[in-house]
Protein backbone atom coordinates (compact mmCIF):
# COMPACT_ATOMS: atom_id res chain seq x y z
CA UNK A 1 0.00 0.00 0.00
CA UNK A 2 1.52 3.27 -1.08
CA UNK A 3 0.70 6.14 1.23
CA UNK A 4 2.42 9.44 1.74
CA UNK A 5 1.56 11.31 4.88
CA UNK A 6 2.62 14.91 5.19
CA UNK A 7 2.52 16.35 8.66
CA UNK A 8 2.25 20.09 8.66
CA UNK A 9 3.88 21.34 11.82
CA UNK A 10 3.20 25.04 12.39
CA UNK A 11 3.60 27.78 14.96
CA UNK A 12 6.92 26.47 16.32
CA UNK A 13 8.49 28.97 18.72
CA UNK A 14 12.21 29.11 18.06
CA UNK A 15 14.31 29.70 21.17
CA UNK A 16 15.99 33.11 21.34
CA UNK A 17 13.63 34.36 18.65
CA UNK A 18 10.31 36.04 19.24
CA UNK A 19 9.13 35.12 15.74
CA UNK A 20 7.11 31.99 14.89
CA UNK A 21 8.71 29.34 12.68
CA UNK A 22 6.55 27.03 10.55
CA UNK A 23 7.84 23.64 9.45
CA UNK A 24 6.25 20.79 7.51
CA UNK A 25 7.22 17.12 7.74
CA UNK A 26 6.46 14.54 5.08
CA UNK A 27 5.80 10.91 5.95
CA UNK A 28 6.24 8.46 3.06
CA UNK A 29 4.63 5.15 3.97
CA UNK A 30 5.70 3.43 0.76
CA UNK A 31 7.89 0.34 1.41
CA UNK A 32 7.61 0.62 5.20
CA UNK A 33 6.44 -2.94 5.82
CA UNK A 34 4.53 -4.64 8.64
CA UNK A 35 2.62 -1.50 9.64
CA UNK A 36 -1.15 -1.15 9.79
CA UNK A 37 -1.57 2.25 8.13
CA UNK A 38 -5.04 2.89 9.52
CA UNK A 39 -3.61 2.51 13.02
CA UNK A 40 -0.49 4.44 12.04
CA UNK A 41 -2.55 7.38 10.77
CA UNK A 42 -4.57 7.55 13.98
CA UNK A 43 -1.52 7.19 16.24
CA UNK A 44 0.34 9.87 14.27
CA UNK A 45 -2.53 12.33 14.72
CA UNK A 46 -2.66 11.71 18.47
CA UNK A 47 1.10 11.95 18.91
CA UNK A 48 1.37 15.15 16.85
CA UNK A 49 -1.37 16.76 18.92
CA UNK A 50 0.51 15.94 22.13
CA UNK A 51 3.85 17.11 20.76
CA UNK A 52 2.16 20.36 19.70
CA UNK A 53 1.28 21.06 23.31
CA UNK A 54 4.70 20.09 24.59
CA UNK A 55 6.81 22.22 22.22
CA UNK A 56 4.16 24.73 21.07
CA UNK A 57 3.48 23.31 17.61
CA UNK A 58 0.15 23.60 15.77
CA UNK A 59 -0.26 20.49 13.61
CA UNK A 60 -2.29 19.31 10.63
CA UNK A 61 -1.97 16.20 8.41
CA UNK A 62 -2.22 15.93 4.64
CA UNK A 63 -2.06 12.82 2.44
CA UNK A 64 -0.24 12.26 -0.85
CA UNK A 65 -0.25 9.24 -3.15
CA UNK A 66 3.34 9.12 -4.40
CA UNK A 67 6.93 10.19 -3.88
CA UNK A 68 6.98 12.58 -6.83
CA UNK A 69 4.26 14.74 -5.27
CA UNK A 70 6.24 14.83 -2.01
CA UNK A 71 9.43 15.94 -3.71
CA UNK A 72 7.58 18.54 -5.76
CA UNK A 73 6.27 19.98 -2.50
CA UNK A 74 9.78 19.99 -1.08
CA UNK A 75 11.14 21.86 -4.09
CA UNK A 76 8.33 24.40 -3.69
CA UNK A 77 9.36 24.90 -0.04
CA UNK A 78 6.13 23.35 1.24
CA UNK A 79 7.75 20.34 2.93
CA UNK A 80 10.92 20.70 4.99
CA UNK A 81 11.40 17.25 6.54
CA UNK A 82 10.69 13.64 5.64
CA UNK A 83 10.14 10.24 7.27
CA UNK A 84 10.57 7.31 4.89
CA UNK A 85 11.67 3.73 4.29
CA UNK A 86 15.35 3.01 3.60
CA UNK A 87 14.47 1.95 0.04
CA UNK A 88 12.96 5.37 -0.76
CA UNK A 89 16.09 7.01 0.62
CA UNK A 90 18.45 4.70 -1.29
CA UNK A 91 16.55 5.10 -4.55
CA UNK A 92 16.82 8.90 -4.31
CA UNK A 93 19.88 9.28 -2.08
CA UNK A 94 21.70 11.75 -4.32
CA UNK A 95 18.84 14.24 -4.00
CA UNK A 96 18.39 13.61 -0.29
CA UNK A 97 22.13 13.88 0.43
CA UNK A 98 22.23 17.20 -1.42
CA UNK A 99 19.29 18.78 0.38
CA UNK A 100 19.22 17.00 3.78
CA UNK A 101 21.85 16.06 6.37
CA UNK A 102 20.72 15.73 10.02
CA UNK A 103 17.90 13.46 11.09
CA UNK A 104 16.94 10.43 13.16
CA UNK A 105 16.41 6.70 12.81
CA UNK A 106 14.55 4.31 15.07
CA UNK A 107 16.64 2.22 17.44
CA UNK A 108 16.27 -1.53 17.92
CA UNK A 109 17.46 -1.63 21.55
CA UNK A 110 16.84 1.21 23.98
CA UNK A 111 19.77 0.19 26.17
CA UNK A 112 22.47 -0.05 23.49
CA UNK A 113 21.02 2.62 21.14
CA UNK A 114 21.70 0.16 18.30
CA UNK A 115 20.04 1.14 15.04
CA UNK A 116 21.90 -0.85 12.37
CA UNK A 117 20.63 -4.30 11.43
CA UNK A 118 21.19 -7.06 8.90
CA UNK A 119 19.01 -9.47 6.91
CA UNK A 120 19.18 -13.26 7.15
CA UNK A 121 17.98 -15.99 4.79
CA UNK A 122 16.55 -18.95 6.75
CA UNK A 123 16.13 -22.62 5.72
CA UNK A 124 15.35 -25.96 7.43
CA UNK A 125 18.25 -28.09 8.66
CA UNK A 126 16.69 -31.42 7.72
CA UNK A 127 16.01 -30.52 4.09
CA UNK A 128 19.30 -28.67 3.82
CA UNK A 129 20.19 -26.05 1.26
CA UNK A 130 21.12 -26.82 -2.32
CA UNK A 131 21.29 -24.25 -5.08
CA UNK A 132 20.05 -26.95 -7.46
CA UNK A 133 16.66 -27.00 -5.75
CA UNK A 134 13.85 -24.60 -6.66
CA UNK A 135 13.24 -22.70 -3.43
CA UNK A 136 10.35 -20.44 -2.47
CA UNK A 137 11.14 -17.49 -0.25
CA UNK A 138 8.52 -15.60 1.74
CA UNK A 139 8.68 -11.88 2.24
CA UNK A 140 6.73 -8.72 1.55
CA UNK A 141 6.50 -8.64 -2.25
CA UNK A 142 6.26 -4.84 -2.23
CA UNK A 143 9.40 -4.53 -0.08
CA UNK A 144 11.90 -3.65 -2.80
CA UNK A 145 14.84 -3.56 -0.39
CA UNK A 146 14.19 -7.25 0.31
CA UNK A 147 14.12 -7.90 -3.44
CA UNK A 148 17.45 -6.09 -3.76
CA UNK A 149 19.03 -8.30 -1.10
CA UNK A 150 17.48 -11.46 -2.53
CA UNK A 151 18.91 -10.60 -5.95
CA UNK A 152 22.35 -10.31 -4.38
CA UNK A 153 21.92 -13.76 -2.80
CA UNK A 154 20.70 -15.15 -6.14
CA UNK A 155 23.87 -13.95 -7.81
CA UNK A 156 25.98 -15.67 -5.14
CA UNK A 157 24.07 -18.95 -5.57
CA UNK A 158 23.74 -18.63 -9.36
CA UNK A 159 20.02 -19.41 -9.24
CA UNK A 160 16.61 -17.73 -9.33
CA UNK A 161 14.27 -17.80 -6.36
CA UNK A 162 10.52 -18.19 -6.70
CA UNK A 163 8.88 -15.48 -4.58
CA UNK A 164 5.83 -15.85 -2.39
CA UNK A 165 4.38 -13.13 -0.20
CA UNK A 166 3.42 -13.46 3.46
CA UNK A 167 1.73 -11.21 6.01
CA UNK A 168 4.64 -10.82 8.43
CA UNK A 169 8.22 -11.87 9.09
CA UNK A 170 7.16 -14.04 12.03
CA UNK A 171 4.72 -15.84 9.72
CA UNK A 172 7.51 -16.30 7.16
CA UNK A 173 9.70 -18.01 9.76
CA UNK A 174 6.88 -20.29 10.88
CA UNK A 175 6.13 -21.25 7.27
CA UNK A 176 9.69 -22.55 6.97
CA UNK A 177 9.36 -24.40 10.26
CA UNK A 178 6.14 -26.12 9.12
CA UNK A 179 7.56 -26.88 5.65
CA UNK A 180 5.19 -24.58 3.79
CA UNK A 181 8.15 -22.91 2.06
CA UNK A 182 11.87 -23.47 1.59
CA UNK A 183 13.38 -20.10 2.49
CA UNK A 184 12.50 -16.93 4.39
CA UNK A 185 14.21 -13.54 4.23
CA UNK A 186 13.76 -11.58 7.48
CA UNK A 187 15.44 -8.92 9.59
CA UNK A 188 17.99 -10.38 11.99
CA UNK A 189 16.05 -8.76 14.83
CA UNK A 190 12.91 -10.69 13.85
CA UNK A 191 14.91 -13.93 13.76
CA UNK A 192 16.43 -13.21 17.19
CA UNK A 193 13.03 -12.49 18.75
CA UNK A 194 11.44 -15.57 17.17
CA UNK A 195 14.16 -17.93 18.40
CA UNK A 196 14.08 -16.38 21.87
CA UNK A 197 10.32 -16.93 22.11
CA UNK A 198 10.51 -20.40 20.56
CA UNK A 199 13.91 -22.13 21.00
CA UNK A 200 12.70 -25.03 18.82
CA UNK A 201 13.11 -22.76 15.79
CA UNK A 202 16.91 -22.59 16.12
CA UNK A 203 17.04 -26.39 16.46
CA UNK A 204 15.14 -26.92 13.19
CA UNK A 205 16.21 -23.89 11.13
CA UNK A 206 19.54 -22.31 10.19
CA UNK A 207 20.90 -19.18 8.52
CA UNK A 208 21.88 -19.71 4.88
CA UNK A 209 23.00 -16.16 4.09
CA UNK A 210 23.70 -13.12 6.24
CA UNK A 211 24.13 -9.52 5.06
CA UNK A 212 26.45 -7.01 6.69
CA UNK A 213 25.00 -5.00 9.57
CA UNK A 214 24.51 -1.83 7.52
CA UNK A 215 20.73 -1.41 7.17
CA UNK A 216 18.14 0.69 8.99
CA UNK A 217 14.38 0.24 9.14
CA UNK A 218 13.05 3.80 8.95
CA UNK A 219 14.73 7.15 8.24
CA UNK A 220 13.83 10.76 8.99
CA UNK A 221 15.80 13.68 7.54
CA UNK A 222 15.59 17.44 8.11
CA UNK A 223 16.22 19.83 5.23
CA UNK A 224 19.35 21.96 5.21
CA UNK A 225 17.10 25.03 4.94
CA UNK A 226 15.72 24.42 8.44
CA UNK A 227 17.51 26.53 11.11
CA UNK A 228 19.78 24.45 13.32
CA UNK A 229 18.01 25.49 16.53
CA UNK A 230 14.69 24.30 15.08
CA UNK A 231 16.32 20.98 14.22
CA UNK A 232 17.56 20.77 17.80
CA UNK A 233 14.03 21.26 19.14
CA UNK A 234 12.55 18.64 16.84
CA UNK A 235 15.31 16.05 17.41
CA UNK A 236 15.08 16.58 21.16
CA UNK A 237 11.33 15.91 21.00
CA UNK A 238 11.99 12.71 19.05
CA UNK A 239 14.63 11.54 21.53
CA UNK A 240 11.99 11.88 24.27
CA UNK A 241 9.18 10.21 22.33
CA UNK A 242 8.98 7.40 24.90
CA UNK A 243 8.13 9.81 27.74
CA UNK A 244 4.48 10.26 26.73
CA UNK A 245 1.67 7.74 26.34
CA UNK A 246 0.98 9.02 22.82
CA UNK A 247 4.63 8.58 21.86
CA UNK A 248 4.72 5.05 23.24
CA UNK A 249 1.60 4.18 21.21
CA UNK A 250 3.36 5.40 18.08
CA UNK A 251 6.43 3.33 18.96
CA UNK A 252 4.24 0.25 19.36
CA UNK A 253 2.63 0.82 15.94
CA UNK A 254 5.96 1.26 14.16
CA UNK A 255 7.74 -1.36 16.30
CA UNK A 256 10.71 0.56 17.64
CA UNK A 257 12.25 1.40 21.03
CA UNK A 258 13.20 5.04 20.55
CA UNK A 259 15.23 7.19 18.18
CA UNK A 260 18.83 8.32 17.78
CA UNK A 261 20.19 11.29 15.85
CA UNK A 262 22.17 10.54 12.67
CA UNK A 263 23.44 12.27 9.55
CA UNK A 264 23.40 11.01 5.97
CA UNK A 265 27.10 10.15 6.42
CA UNK A 266 25.99 7.22 8.60
CA UNK A 267 24.37 5.59 5.55
CA UNK A 268 27.54 5.34 3.42
CA UNK A 269 27.95 1.51 3.77
CA UNK A 270 24.26 0.97 2.94
CA UNK A 271 24.53 3.23 -0.12
CA UNK A 272 27.64 1.43 -1.37
CA UNK A 273 25.79 -1.89 -1.11
CA UNK A 274 22.75 -0.50 -2.94
CA UNK A 275 24.84 1.06 -5.72
CA UNK A 276 26.79 -2.17 -6.24
CA UNK A 277 23.69 -4.41 -6.49
CA UNK A 278 21.85 -1.93 -8.76
CA UNK A 279 24.91 -1.62 -11.03
CA UNK A 280 25.06 -5.43 -11.31
CA UNK A 281 21.27 -5.71 -11.76
CA UNK A 282 19.88 -2.56 -13.48
CA UNK A 283 16.62 -4.39 -14.19
CA UNK A 284 15.68 -3.93 -10.51
CA UNK A 285 14.95 -0.25 -11.11
CA UNK A 286 12.76 -1.13 -14.07
CA UNK A 287 10.68 -3.51 -11.90
CA UNK A 288 9.75 -0.79 -9.40
Question: What is the helix content?
Answer: 40-55%
| Number of separate helices | 12
**What coarse outline follows from CA principal-axis ratios?**
globular
Gyration radius, rounded: 20 Å
The helix/strand class is alpha+beta
The stretches of 5 or more residues where confidence is low (pLDDT under 50) are 1-19
State the separation between the terminal residues, measured CA to CA.
Answer: 14 Å
For this structure, the CATH topology of the largest domain is D-Maltodextrin-Binding Protein, domain 2
What percent strand?
25-35%
Main beta sheet: 7 strands, mixed
Number of domains: 2
Q: Please provide the ordered H/E string of secondary-structure elements.
A: EEHEHEHHEEEHEHEHHEEHHEHH
Query: CATH top level of the largest domain?
Result: Alpha Beta
* Beta-strand segment tally: 12
**Spatial ordering of strands, largest sheet:** 3-1-2-4-11-5-12
By CATH, the superfamily of the largest domain comes out as: Periplasmic binding protein-like II
What would you note in describing this structure?
This protein is an alpha+beta fold and 288 residues long. It is built from twelve helices and twelve strands. Strands 3-1-2-4-11-5-12 form a seven-stranded mixed beta sheet. A hairpin with a 6-residue loop joins strand 1 and strand 2.
